[in-house]
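Feature request, filed as a ticket because there's no other form

It would be nice if the structure record came with a short human-readable summary line next to the tokens. Right now we just get the raw output. Example of a typical job, pasted below so the devs can see what we mean:
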Amino acid sequence: MIGLFVMTDQVKIQFLGTGAAVPSLRRGLPSLAILHDGGIILCDIGEGTQLNILRAGLPPSKIHTILISHLHGDHIFGLPGFLTSQQMMDRVNPLTIIGPPGIRQYYDHIRSIAGFDIQYPLYFKELTQEENNSMLVGPFQVTAKPLEHRTVCYGYRLSESPKAGKFNSQAAAALGIPEGSQRRDLQQGIPVQINGKLIKPEQVVGPPVPGRIIAYLTDTRPCVNALELARTATALIFDSTFSGDHAERAQQTFHSTSVQAAELARQAVAGQLLLWHISIRNGEEIEAAMLREARTIFPNTLMPADYETVEIFRPGQR
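Raw output as currently delivered:
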């Protein structure tokens, strides 16, 4: 797995726990890792996550940011153990924790009671109730908006910048552009002069390649903010706690069904839907039916298992 961090322009999602509320032998409590070139963003950190990180072969020191959706136990009870284990492993890399109001207080209370201290740089950013939460996290511009759950819960949209288009060496040679700084300038979008003639970047550089968008929306009913965060997402990870037969229970508990997830993915014109936060009430046969019913609405749907990795391609590059 270490080889994932010498990759070029790859983004992968590794699912560490895909269950909901209570763990089972097949599905652990919620957590997933977004692997990008040089680092890892963790989304939620349920109990047992640090063991799942080790089983997945991921280097914990590469985790630079943890995005917390909300303060229910199945999404945060793994945080204290991970932080203290990193201290015992002499971590030096900084770590940022982003989440709803109260996440810093949660950490402070446990630290006070347990009597531990953290020496590596640890930062907290608590989101506001307004809908203007935007920040740079690794290669992504991250937007957070409140969802509809029984407590304050945020969904996250991670948007990557476009990549420069492919440089056409043959066209450059035909225009008399020598190897070196002038080609580099053109690749960076800067026009150059060759024999008194202006050469524009678009003459030798292809159109930019769109960036990937990952929407992480857990523990919510379908709602306006969920749709906005999911809009045109390359990969949409969405609450699918219940099967379509239990829409009333999903409504009562502020969750969603696999059918609702698929309908929202279709409305959002997403690229791929990843069903997530699966209740242990659903056995394997029910899960298979949930996947089938979702695919009838949104064909490009997966229901990942724990430790499964899904590569996310730039639009048009698969």
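Something like this underneath would help us a lot:
The chain has two domains: 2-163+209-312, 169-203.
The two ends are 22 Å apart (CA to CA).
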